Structure formats: C-alpha cells, structure tokens
Amino acid sequence: MLRLLGTDDYEVGTRIKGITARAILTLALGAVGFLLLGFIIGWFAKSSGSSNPSQVSQSMRKEFWDELKAENIKHYLYNFSRVPHLAGTEENFLLAKQIQTQWKEYGLDQVELTHYDILLSYPNQSHPNYISIVDEKGQEARQTGQTVVHEKACWRPRRTMIFASWDAEEFGLMGSTEWAEENVKLLEHRAVAYINADSSVEGNYTLKIDCSPLLYQLVYSLTKEIPSPDEGFEGKSLYESWHQKYNWTDFKDAPRINKLGSGNDFEVFFQRLGIASGRARYTKSSKEHRYNGYPVYHSIYETSEIVDKFYDPLYKNHLVVAKVRGGLVFDLANEVIIPFNAQDYASELKNYADIVNNMGQKHKSQLDTYNVSFYALYSAIENFTKSATSFHSRLKDLDVKNPLEVRSVNDQLMYLERAFIDPLGLPGRPFYRHIIFAPSSHNKYVGESFPGIYDALFDIESKSDQRSAWDEVKRQISIATFTVQAAGQTLEDVL
Ligand SMILES: *[C@@H]1O[C@H](CO)[C@@H](O)[C@H](O)[C@H]1NC(C)=O
Ligand SMILES: *[C@@H]1O[C@H](CO)[C@@H](O)[C@H](O)[C@H]1NC(C)=O
Ligand SMILES: *[C@@H]1O[C@H](CO)[C@@H](O)[C@H](O)[C@H]1NC(C)=O
Ligand SMILES: *[C@@H]1O[C@H](CO)[C@@H](O)[C@H](O)[C@H]1NC(C)=O
Ligand SMILES: *[C@@H]1O[C@H](CO)[C@@H](O)[C@H](O)[C@H]1NC(C)=O
Ligand SMILES: *[C@@H]1O[C@H](CO)[C@@H](O)[C@H](O)[C@H]1NC(C)=O
To answer: Ligand 5 — pocket residues by CB below 6 A?
Structure first.
C-alpha cells in the first residue's frame, strides 16, 4: 500500500546486535522511526543506576521517546518524497544508498542493501492497458555488500533488531517476501515479532492498530503513557482519546484493535511464518468517512505538502505513531520477559468461534443431517484458555534472574504464534498458513478469523453437493480444533 512516508521503495536492511542476542526482533519501522533510533543509540551511553531491569528499560524507553521530534519527521518526509523513486529505478537505488550512508553515520552495526532479481512491469504510456513481463536479465546496477561499523557499544537492546525497508511492495510484496524466504529458517527459529510501518497518517481522528492478540496488552500499556495529540484531550493519554473515539463496546471496554489482513509487507511474516505482528497509524473517523484509505491515496497529489496543509500540519499525529511503533519495538527488544499476553488470544478465540458458530447455526437442519458440531472446537478453546491462565499466573512467580527459567518462558511466548501455523496451508492458499487469521477471500486488505471454517460456510446454501460441502466444514473444524488444542499445550509447564 502507499506510504505517506514514501520509504518502502528501496531495500535496506540494518542489524543491531544485542549483547545477549538470542532472538531476532524483525521490524520495518518507517524512516522516521529508524533514523531516530539510529541516533538514539549513542544517547543511552549514560546508564541508569537502578538495578531493576524492567525499570531501567522503561526509563530508557522514555528517553528514546523524548528524542522523537515532529520537526525531524517533517524534514525526513520532505526529503524522502522529493524525487519519484519507483521500485527498480536509479532514483530508488540512490535513495537506498543515502539511507545506508545515514544509518552507518548513526552507528548501526551493519547496513546492507540486499539485491533480488525480480520481474516488474511498468505502465507504458502509449499502451496503457497492455501488460507484459519483461526480464531485465540483471540490467540493474544494484550492489550487495556488508559493512560493519559501530565499535563503541553504549546502550544495546537485549535482542537483535533488524530494520528493513522493503522494495517493490506494490508489485506483490516482493521485497519482503523474497527476503523472508531467503531467511526463512532464522525467522522461524528466532523471530519474536514484526512491526510494520506504512501509511503513518491516513486521517487526523484517532489511532488505528491491527495486531496479533499477543500484543494487545503491550499496545494498551504504551498508549496509556503517550499523551493524546487530539484537540479536547489536553492532559489526557492517547489511550483515553482512542478509547472514547473507537470503543470496542460489544467485546470489551477498551479501544478497538483490528485483525491483520494483508495488502502489506507483514503478510509473509504473520500469515505464512506465524511471527506475531502489528501495525499502527492515525486514521479518520470510520463513522463519518466510510470510504477506504483517503481521497488522494495513490495519486500524484499525495505529497508532503498535503500533509503540511491538511493532514498533520504540526506532525503531532506522525509523532504519536512513531512513539507507538518505536515503543513496541523498544519493549519487544528490551524487556526481560517478552511482553506478550496469551490470555487475550484465548478470549479472541472464543469470540472468533462464536462468529463461525453463528454462521453455522443459520443452517440448523443441515447441522443435524450432516452431524456437524462446534463442540470440539469450544473444548479446545476452553483448554487453551486454562493453559494461558496458568501460564500467566506462573509468570508472576518467575525468577527473572534465572536465565534458564527466563529462556524457557520466552521460548513458549515466542513460539505461541508459530503454533497456529498449519504447514499445509489453507485450502487453495498454501502461503496462508495461519489457522486463526488470513486475509479475507473477498477483500485481501481485511482479516478473517478461522478462515478455513468461514470460507467453507460462506454461501454454503448455493453449493450443489451439500454432503461434500458440509464434509468440508467438518474437516475445517477439525483442523482448527487440533491446532488450538496443540497450541494450548505449548503453554503448559515444562517438566
Ligand atoms: C536529502 O538529504 C540528503 C542527505 O542529507 C541530501 O544529500 C539531499 O540533498 C536531500 N535532498 C533534498 C531534496 O532535500
Ligand atoms: C510501449 O509499447 C510500445 C508498443 O508495444 C513499444 O514500442 C514501446 O517501446 C513501449 N515503451 C516502453 C517504454 O516500454
Ligand atoms: C482534520 O480534523 C478536522 C477537525 O476534526 C477535520 O475537519 C478535517 O477534515 C480533518 N482533516 C483530514 C484531512 O482528515
Ligand atoms: C465503551 O463501551 C462500554 C460498553 O458499552 C461502556 O460501558 C464504556 O463506558 C465505553 N467506554 C468509553 C470510554 O466510551
Ligand atoms: C456424529 O458425530 C459424533 C461425534 O461428533 C459421533 O459420536 C456420532 O456417531 C456421529 N453420528 C453420525 C450419525 O454420524
Ligand atoms: C480438552 O481437555 C480435556 C481434558 O484434558 C480433554 O478430555 C479434551 O479432549 C480436550 N479437548 C480437545 C479438543 O482436545
């Protein structure tokens, strides 16, 4: 999708290695976030005197947040969007080199441009409706290289962070997908989380978050610490203005968080590999403006000037989005215990099961005729819920100074999202392997829960062979059941 930041059209990968780096935290912060984070590393040279690792981490996060400045965001947005830089063009390559140089200056350990040969199609003015695939056979002057800088370690995150800026997103998420395929084993075994950055601001009304349920608690606690940028909410937190404007109402008394769909670079990480993912942006009021995105989306009028004049003249919404993304990345990389919560997953699973169950109950006689029941799925969710509850109560007594205990629960937390992956994928969609979430089959941008069951039930009355249609529903319920049951077991105490 489009980026107001205009930062996805080149490939840059950066690594910061933590001293105790066991796990990789992968993320693609917007340019704003990463440039500032690069700057922040030296800043943390002065260590805090407190001995509580969690307090130290939180005070460092505050200092990091204080370094984020609206005027810098404005400056970078202007600079990066000045020249058109379509994927695969010389301008795009030069911009990537510029970012690489700046990141090195900021002291990141390693900054590399990763080259992939990808077939791209460009519009042809004289034949606008003619589409062809042209193999450029290595015509592009891209380079690969590795540079290691940064000898003076000051503050370092506990876990490795990778900052990635993806190329060729509009052409089919190519940069992120190629990179994830190349690094698939590392990612499967070591990735804790992926935070996406795209379209920081699509309106000036309130915050919009799409993420794995594992991240809900972290998002809520961070937004309670960030001041609201909204008029009429002076002195209030972002959480409060967000809660008032976008209440979850029927599900719970908290700000609403959406499911991840696709149409963006988190897809391969979340939907294919099962890495807990999230994204944040500022958005318009969904009640007043019912259209998707915003009017100038993907047009040539989408410039930094339009942000200056209409969308975010003070860059205060950009700043808040940078703080949310940056705060997520910071805590995921730095907290001793990975800040995931499995209990929110449990309550969402119940919520999602109710949705497919209600779809099914519209066909009561068929449920009887073909002996279809959701009982086993509810049983698995109940078992998952018990496991999640006892896992979190054990966490309270954990000896955080015992590295083996810490390692053990962090592995359980890190691999929980992975446990929802079915290697066979969804019917007809082998790259969508998450059993709980997938892009909707009817709108790729939107997320669907229990997609296998949902798709089997969708419009089922119009299927000609009713027996095989309901057999497929049963098959999908079984897959969801054993997946949830098995995922819950990974949270049991390790003997
Ligand atoms: C953007 O920043 C780079 C690096 O500081 C500079 O070389 C370049 O001239 C700037 N471009 C514009 C359009 O301001
Ligand atoms: C556009 O299409 C025409 C007709 O196929 C072709 O002659 C021309 O080279 C194309 N232009 C570009 C820029 O590819
Ligand atoms: C920004 O907020 C004002 C006041 O709420 C509203 O009238 C305006 O339409 C918003 N601008 C955009 C671009 O959403
Ligand atoms: C959110 O909705 C719940 C349920 O209707 C309600 O009790 C609560 O007061 C609402 N919260 C806010 C901040 O509007
Ligand atoms: C219906 O399914 C249940 C298990 O879910 C099984 O015990 C029962 O025998 C089945 N009945 C028929 C008629 O297939
Ligand atoms: C849930 O746990 C109970 C008790 O261990 C077990 O009997 C039941 O089969 C489990 N449910 C599923 C779906 O495996």
So the answer is: 371, 373
320 pLDDT higher than 90: yes
Ligand 5 centroid vs 366 CA: distance in angstroms? 14
Indicate which ligand has the atom closest to the C-alpha of 81: 1
CA of 171 to the centre of ligand 5 (A): 48
Domain positions in the chain are 7-334, 342-489
Pick the CATH number of 7-334 from 3.40.630.10, 2.60.120.10, 3.40.50.700, 3.40.50.150: 3.40.630.10
Average pLDDT over all residues of the chain: 85
Model confidence at 299: pLDDT above 90: no
Nearest to 191, CA basis, from 220, 208, 214, 218: 214
User: Which listed ligand is nearest to 304 at the C-alpha?
Assistant: 1
121 CB near ligand 2 (under 6 Å): no
Residues 150-163: pLDDT tens digits?
A: 334 467 889 999 99
pTM: 0.83
Q: Is the CB of 132 under 6 A from ligand 2?
A: no
